Amino acid sequence: MNHEERVQLANKLTDMMIKKYGNDILLAGIGGSTARNTDTEYSDLEMFFVVSNSSKAKSRQFGFAYKGMPVEVLVKKVAEVERDIEEVDIDWPLKMGILFNSKITCGDRAILERFRKMVEGTPQERFDRFIAKETPLCYEGLGRLKAVKIRKNIHETGLFVAEVLQEFNLLVAVLNREFINHDYLGGLQEAFKFKKLPKDYEKIARKLFNWTSLSLDETIRLAQEFVHNFVEFASENGIKIEEHIPIEEVEL
Questions:
Q1: pLDDT of residue 251
Q2: Inter-residue contact 32 to 43 (CB < 8 Å)
Q3: How far apart are CA 247 and CA 232, in angstroms?
Q4: Taking the model in full, what pTM does it have?
Q5: What is the band of 114 on the pLDDT scale with cuts at 50, 70, 90?
Q6: Which of 109, 113, 100 is closest to 179 using CA atoms?
Q7: What is the 3-state secondary structure (H, E, C) of 83-133?
Q8: Is residue 252 part of a domain?
Q9: Distance (Å, rounded) from C-alpha 26 to C-alpha 51?
Q10: The domain that contains 28 carries what CATH number?
Q11: Which terminus of the chain, N or C, has less C-beta within 10 A?
Q12: pLDDT at 194
């Protein structure tokens, strides 16, 4: 399908949702490459719908194939969107990117402005606290990369390099309170434009992106530096990474 056909399908889905749920549909939009007008004949279609809290439409994510093309639909009630804004997690930059950088197919943009004010009103300490606790959990990708040398599963090197780049790129976005509009490693170049970046962030990221031209030892060294620089960067911004929590203090 070409771009115009994909948009037509999105409009048809929107009309179907409105026919079924009426005024409960507060906002609908197209995400991903179709929203950016960078889709190709091999792209999928991503859509989201924000519905009223009292709507019979259930919050859910579902997909189907249309003429061989994957279609992914996300339905959320207002309260759930508000939780996404206020309860910062590792996917916060992606969730906000979908919400605020979509191609709107129906609804009142005033609700987007209300959501944006909520983002602006979220205390910085909430972002900092998340980074302090989440960062050590993201060490796993680096650990897996180091284990490649021991296990000799060289074919998995690229997977773990991508894991390190993706997770720490999202952490950088959270620290900057910025949105990411591309899944996977496409968001790296977006982050290069953020105001606050760890030392040599773009330089190391670009080298790791081309890991096939590096030795395994050099790949591990650069990935370790990439992670270390983020931890130092967080510290410079007043965030102390919680690398150890006594088992007695774990919230069960």
A1: 82
A2: yes
A3: 26
A4: 0.93
A5: very high
A6: 100
A7: HHHHCCCCCHHHHHHHHHCCEEEEECCHHHHHHHHHHHHCCHHHHHHHHHH
A8: no
A9: 5
A10: 3.30.460.10
A11: C
A12: 97
